[in-house]
Fold:
Amino acid sequence: MSLFSYYGFMSLQQKELEQATEKFVHYLKSQKLKLTQQRLEVLEHFLGTREHVSADELYQELREVNPKIGFSTVYRTLKLLSDSGIAKENYFRDGFTRYENDFNRDHHDHIICTDCNEIFEFENREIEELQCMVAKNLGFKIVDHQLEIYAKCNKFPNCPNNKEK
Structure:
């Protein structure tokens, strides 16, 4: 236990990890599955990425820390994290299932560069209200949605489409 957590000053990251672990443990117990050290490693590393990662990308990162971890462990754990509500699966046009941290996060949408595949998150109240209005006018009640906008980013330095180079 760190000095900060001993005195009640736990970092937001530590607190999130603790809460997510608690939720994950509860989910695993409800499914009669075991909590293993490797599953904990996947959870902790996943929560620390803050990116939209594929199972293979996360596996490659974890292999640097723990060469004994297997791809199937990473893949299955990501599915469990998704099923437990900690991760969200995204199916962008790159053909990979990408996972993002969905634990204690507000709804957001995505804009993806078609040249460099960079994924940017954004929130827009007006778009959300318009979607609700459209659904209501058509006789629907939204239970979930995902907005993806595909565009070309000209203002980011690593994008091959950047005209400012």
